[in-house]
Write a structure and sequence with these properties.
The chain is of the alpha+beta class. Strands 1-2-3-4-5-6-7-8 form an eight-stranded antiparallel β-sheet. Strand 5 and strand 6 form a beta hairpin. Helix 1 packs across helix 5 and helix 4 runs antiparallel to helix 5. The chain is elongated, with a radius of gyration of 23 Å.
Length: about 290
Protein backbone atom coordinates (compact mmCIF):
# COMPACT_ATOMS: atom_id res chain seq x y z
CA UNK A 1 0.00 0.00 0.00
CA UNK A 2 2.69 2.50 1.02
CA UNK A 3 4.99 1.91 -2.02
CA UNK A 4 1.99 2.42 -4.33
CA UNK A 5 1.09 5.61 -2.50
CA UNK A 6 4.68 6.81 -2.74
CA UNK A 7 4.72 6.18 -6.47
CA UNK A 8 1.45 8.08 -6.94
CA UNK A 9 2.79 11.03 -4.97
CA UNK A 10 5.96 11.15 -7.03
CA UNK A 11 3.87 11.08 -10.19
CA UNK A 12 1.68 13.86 -8.82
CA UNK A 13 4.69 16.07 -8.17
CA UNK A 14 5.99 15.44 -11.69
CA UNK A 15 2.58 16.11 -13.22
CA UNK A 16 2.30 19.33 -11.24
CA UNK A 17 5.35 20.66 -13.05
CA UNK A 18 4.53 19.16 -16.43
CA UNK A 19 0.76 19.24 -16.94
CA UNK A 20 0.29 22.65 -15.36
CA UNK A 21 1.73 24.23 -18.47
CA UNK A 22 -0.93 25.35 -20.96
CA UNK A 23 -0.76 24.54 -24.64
CA UNK A 24 -1.29 28.17 -25.63
CA UNK A 25 -2.14 31.53 -24.17
CA UNK A 26 -5.73 31.75 -22.98
CA UNK A 27 -8.01 34.79 -22.74
CA UNK A 28 -8.12 36.55 -19.41
CA UNK A 29 -10.11 34.51 -16.90
CA UNK A 30 -12.97 36.14 -14.99
CA UNK A 31 -12.41 36.85 -11.33
CA UNK A 32 -13.05 33.74 -9.26
CA UNK A 33 -14.44 33.30 -5.76
CA UNK A 34 -12.56 35.27 -3.14
CA UNK A 35 -12.61 34.95 0.64
CA UNK A 36 -12.10 38.20 2.59
CA UNK A 37 -8.46 38.91 3.33
CA UNK A 38 -9.19 39.31 7.05
CA UNK A 39 -10.34 35.68 7.15
CA UNK A 40 -7.25 34.22 5.50
CA UNK A 41 -4.42 32.52 7.29
CA UNK A 42 -4.17 29.88 10.02
CA UNK A 43 -6.78 29.62 12.78
CA UNK A 44 -6.81 27.26 15.75
CA UNK A 45 -9.46 25.60 17.91
CA UNK A 46 -8.89 25.52 21.66
CA UNK A 47 -5.83 26.83 23.45
CA UNK A 48 -2.82 27.89 21.41
CA UNK A 49 -0.56 25.78 23.63
CA UNK A 50 -2.56 22.64 22.85
CA UNK A 51 -5.02 23.21 19.97
CA UNK A 52 -7.63 20.64 19.00
CA UNK A 53 -7.57 21.54 15.34
CA UNK A 54 -6.50 24.00 12.68
CA UNK A 55 -8.28 25.88 9.90
CA UNK A 56 -6.28 27.06 6.89
CA UNK A 57 -8.01 29.77 4.84
CA UNK A 58 -6.56 30.98 1.53
CA UNK A 59 -8.08 33.19 -1.14
CA UNK A 60 -10.14 30.36 -2.64
CA UNK A 61 -9.84 27.38 -0.31
CA UNK A 62 -10.53 26.26 3.24
CA UNK A 63 -8.86 23.23 4.83
CA UNK A 64 -9.85 21.93 8.26
CA UNK A 65 -7.73 19.41 10.16
CA UNK A 66 -8.62 18.03 13.59
CA UNK A 67 -6.88 15.86 16.12
CA UNK A 68 -9.36 13.00 15.67
CA UNK A 69 -12.13 13.95 13.20
CA UNK A 70 -11.73 13.48 9.42
CA UNK A 71 -10.23 16.47 7.63
CA UNK A 72 -12.16 18.47 5.06
CA UNK A 73 -11.03 20.49 2.08
CA UNK A 74 -13.22 23.09 0.36
CA UNK A 75 -11.94 24.23 -3.05
CA UNK A 76 -14.39 27.02 -3.73
CA UNK A 77 -16.28 27.50 -6.98
CA UNK A 78 -18.34 30.46 -5.72
CA UNK A 79 -18.69 32.78 -2.73
CA UNK A 80 -21.42 35.16 -1.59
CA UNK A 81 -22.25 37.32 1.43
CA UNK A 82 -25.43 36.80 3.47
CA UNK A 83 -26.37 38.07 6.95
CA UNK A 84 -22.78 38.65 7.99
CA UNK A 85 -21.60 35.28 6.69
CA UNK A 86 -19.28 34.56 3.80
CA UNK A 87 -20.72 31.43 2.19
CA UNK A 88 -18.42 29.43 -0.02
CA UNK A 89 -19.67 26.69 -2.32
CA UNK A 90 -17.03 24.09 -3.11
CA UNK A 91 -16.45 21.93 -6.12
CA UNK A 92 -17.62 18.31 -5.99
CA UNK A 93 -20.77 16.32 -6.70
CA UNK A 94 -22.62 17.53 -3.58
CA UNK A 95 -21.33 21.13 -3.84
CA UNK A 96 -20.58 21.30 -0.09
CA UNK A 97 -20.67 24.70 1.60
CA UNK A 98 -18.52 26.36 4.23
CA UNK A 99 -19.68 29.46 6.12
CA UNK A 100 -17.31 31.93 7.79
CA UNK A 101 -17.88 35.11 9.79
CA UNK A 102 -15.90 37.29 12.21
CA UNK A 103 -16.48 36.63 15.92
CA UNK A 104 -14.69 39.35 17.88
CA UNK A 105 -11.01 38.73 17.26
CA UNK A 106 -11.76 35.16 16.17
CA UNK A 107 -13.64 33.37 13.44
CA UNK A 108 -16.76 31.21 13.40
CA UNK A 109 -17.45 28.55 10.80
CA UNK A 110 -20.34 26.27 9.92
CA UNK A 111 -20.47 23.31 7.55
CA UNK A 112 -24.17 22.89 6.73
CA UNK A 113 -25.72 19.76 5.33
CA UNK A 114 -25.61 19.85 1.51
CA UNK A 115 -29.40 19.36 1.44
CA UNK A 116 -30.17 22.42 3.58
CA UNK A 117 -31.81 25.24 1.65
CA UNK A 118 -29.82 28.44 1.20
CA UNK A 119 -32.53 30.58 2.81
CA UNK A 120 -32.30 28.51 6.02
CA UNK A 121 -28.55 28.68 6.53
CA UNK A 122 -26.97 28.02 8.95
CA UNK A 123 -30.08 26.69 10.72
CA UNK A 124 -29.16 24.28 13.48
CA UNK A 125 -25.71 23.60 12.03
CA UNK A 126 -23.12 23.45 14.86
CA UNK A 127 -20.74 26.40 14.91
CA UNK A 128 -16.99 26.09 15.40
CA UNK A 129 -14.90 28.87 16.94
CA UNK A 130 -11.32 29.56 15.87
CA UNK A 131 -8.62 31.90 17.14
CA UNK A 132 -5.35 33.33 15.95
CA UNK A 133 -2.14 32.30 17.70
CA UNK A 134 0.97 34.46 17.98
CA UNK A 135 2.98 31.54 16.59
CA UNK A 136 1.71 28.27 15.12
CA UNK A 137 2.08 25.41 17.62
CA UNK A 138 5.29 23.56 16.79
CA UNK A 139 3.64 20.16 16.33
CA UNK A 140 0.99 21.49 13.93
CA UNK A 141 3.50 23.63 12.05
CA UNK A 142 5.75 20.62 11.48
CA UNK A 143 2.89 18.48 10.18
CA UNK A 144 0.78 21.01 8.29
CA UNK A 145 3.08 23.91 7.41
CA UNK A 146 4.23 22.69 4.01
CA UNK A 147 0.74 21.54 3.09
CA UNK A 148 -0.75 24.94 3.90
CA UNK A 149 1.96 26.58 1.80
CA UNK A 150 1.28 24.15 -1.05
CA UNK A 151 -2.43 24.99 -0.99
CA UNK A 152 -1.53 28.63 -1.62
CA UNK A 153 1.00 27.61 -4.29
CA UNK A 154 -1.69 25.69 -6.18
CA UNK A 155 -3.87 28.79 -6.30
CA UNK A 156 -1.01 30.92 -7.62
CA UNK A 157 -0.28 28.33 -10.31
CA UNK A 158 -3.95 28.14 -11.28
CA UNK A 159 -3.92 31.90 -11.75
CA UNK A 160 -0.59 32.07 -13.57
CA UNK A 161 -0.97 29.00 -15.78
CA UNK A 162 -4.63 29.45 -16.73
CA UNK A 163 -4.03 32.57 -18.81
CA UNK A 164 -0.29 32.59 -19.46
CA UNK A 165 1.94 31.09 -22.12
CA UNK A 166 3.93 27.95 -21.28
CA UNK A 167 6.97 30.10 -20.57
CA UNK A 168 5.01 32.30 -18.18
CA UNK A 169 3.59 29.21 -16.49
CA UNK A 170 7.06 27.68 -16.09
CA UNK A 171 8.28 30.89 -14.50
CA UNK A 172 5.28 30.84 -12.15
CA UNK A 173 6.19 27.31 -11.06
CA UNK A 174 9.78 28.30 -10.36
CA UNK A 175 8.73 31.47 -8.54
CA UNK A 176 6.32 29.64 -6.26
CA UNK A 177 8.60 26.68 -5.52
CA UNK A 178 11.87 28.62 -5.19
CA UNK A 179 12.60 28.74 -1.46
CA UNK A 180 16.21 29.95 -1.75
CA UNK A 181 15.33 32.84 -4.05
CA UNK A 182 17.99 32.08 -6.67
CA UNK A 183 15.46 31.58 -9.49
CA UNK A 184 16.25 27.87 -9.83
CA UNK A 185 14.75 24.68 -8.39
CA UNK A 186 16.83 22.15 -6.50
CA UNK A 187 15.82 18.59 -5.72
CA UNK A 188 14.98 19.71 -2.17
CA UNK A 189 12.59 22.37 -3.46
CA UNK A 190 10.93 19.84 -5.75
CA UNK A 191 10.66 17.40 -2.84
CA UNK A 192 8.89 20.11 -0.83
CA UNK A 193 6.20 20.23 -3.54
CA UNK A 194 5.74 16.47 -3.28
CA UNK A 195 5.30 16.63 0.50
CA UNK A 196 2.80 19.44 0.09
CA UNK A 197 0.91 17.45 -2.54
CA UNK A 198 0.81 14.48 -0.17
CA UNK A 199 -0.71 16.63 2.58
CA UNK A 200 -3.28 18.10 0.22
CA UNK A 201 -4.30 14.67 -1.06
CA UNK A 202 -4.72 13.28 2.45
CA UNK A 203 -6.84 16.24 3.55
CA UNK A 204 -8.97 16.03 0.43
CA UNK A 205 -9.63 12.35 1.14
CA UNK A 206 -10.76 13.14 4.68
CA UNK A 207 -7.78 11.69 6.48
CA UNK A 208 -7.41 11.91 10.23
CA UNK A 209 -4.30 13.42 11.77
CA UNK A 210 -2.55 10.04 11.82
CA UNK A 211 -3.39 9.41 8.17
CA UNK A 212 -2.14 12.85 7.19
CA UNK A 213 1.10 12.25 9.08
CA UNK A 214 1.59 8.92 7.28
CA UNK A 215 0.88 10.53 3.92
CA UNK A 216 3.37 13.32 4.55
CA UNK A 217 5.94 10.70 5.52
CA UNK A 218 5.32 8.85 2.28
CA UNK A 219 5.47 12.17 0.47
CA UNK A 220 8.96 12.74 1.86
CA UNK A 221 10.13 9.54 0.17
CA UNK A 222 8.21 10.38 -2.99
CA UNK A 223 9.73 13.84 -2.99
CA UNK A 224 13.24 12.45 -3.11
CA UNK A 225 12.26 10.27 -6.06
CA UNK A 226 10.43 13.11 -7.82
CA UNK A 227 13.39 15.46 -7.37
CA UNK A 228 15.81 12.94 -8.85
CA UNK A 229 13.51 12.06 -11.74
CA UNK A 230 12.85 15.68 -12.68
CA UNK A 231 16.49 16.71 -12.46
CA UNK A 232 17.64 13.72 -14.50
CA UNK A 233 14.90 14.40 -17.06
CA UNK A 234 15.02 18.20 -17.40
CA UNK A 235 18.36 19.47 -16.09
CA UNK A 236 19.87 20.05 -19.52
CA UNK A 237 22.88 22.09 -18.40
CA UNK A 238 23.75 19.61 -15.65
CA UNK A 239 24.06 22.16 -12.85
CA UNK A 240 21.81 20.18 -10.49
CA UNK A 241 19.01 22.75 -10.63
CA UNK A 242 16.01 23.48 -12.85
CA UNK A 243 15.34 26.84 -14.45
CA UNK A 244 12.11 28.14 -15.95
CA UNK A 245 13.70 27.78 -19.39
CA UNK A 246 14.45 24.11 -18.77
CA UNK A 247 10.89 23.49 -17.57
CA UNK A 248 9.50 25.21 -20.68
CA UNK A 249 11.91 23.58 -23.13
CA UNK A 250 9.97 22.35 -26.20
CA UNK A 251 6.72 23.40 -24.48
CA UNK A 252 6.87 27.15 -25.07
CA UNK A 253 7.60 26.78 -28.79
CA UNK A 254 8.08 24.02 -31.32
CA UNK A 255 11.83 24.00 -31.84
CA UNK A 256 13.61 22.65 -34.90
CA UNK A 257 10.40 21.43 -36.55
CA UNK A 258 11.52 22.21 -40.12
CA UNK A 259 13.42 18.95 -40.39
CA UNK A 260 15.63 18.09 -43.34
CA UNK A 261 15.04 16.96 -46.91
CA UNK A 262 18.14 14.74 -46.83
CA UNK A 263 18.15 11.06 -45.84
CA UNK A 264 15.38 8.50 -45.92
CA UNK A 265 12.93 7.12 -43.29
CA UNK A 266 14.26 4.67 -40.74
CA UNK A 267 12.26 2.09 -38.81
CA UNK A 268 10.72 3.58 -35.65
CA UNK A 269 8.65 0.63 -34.43
CA UNK A 270 9.45 -0.23 -30.84
CA UNK A 271 11.09 3.08 -30.01
CA UNK A 272 8.74 3.58 -27.08
CA UNK A 273 9.54 0.28 -25.40
CA UNK A 274 11.60 1.52 -22.48
CA UNK A 275 15.33 1.02 -22.83
CA UNK A 276 14.90 -0.17 -26.42
CA UNK A 277 14.20 3.39 -27.55
CA UNK A 278 17.77 4.55 -28.18
CA UNK A 279 18.92 1.09 -29.21
CA UNK A 280 16.20 0.94 -31.86
CA UNK A 281 17.15 4.38 -33.10
CA UNK A 282 20.85 3.54 -33.35
CA UNK A 283 20.13 0.23 -35.07
CA UNK A 284 17.91 2.01 -37.56
CA UNK A 285 20.65 4.51 -38.31
CA UNK A 286 23.20 1.72 -38.79
CA UNK A 287 20.88 -0.05 -41.23
CA UNK A 288 20.84 3.02 -43.50
CA UNK A 289 24.37 2.22 -44.70
Amino acid sequence: MMPALTTRLAQAAILLLAIAQPAAAQPAAPAGPVLPEAQRGAWFAGECADPRGMLVVTARSVARVDAEAPARLFRLAATREASGWTIGTATGPEAPRIMLRPAGEGLETAEPDPKMRDDRLPGTTPLATWRRCAAPPAVLAALHGEGAAFLAIVEHLEAGCAIGTPGVCAQAIVTQADVSGDGLLTSAEIARLARGAAWLGAVQEGGTQDVIAAAVGAGAVAGILAGRVLLESLDYDGDGRLSAAELAQDRAVFAATAGSTAGRPLRVEGLTEGAGMLRGLFEGLMNLR
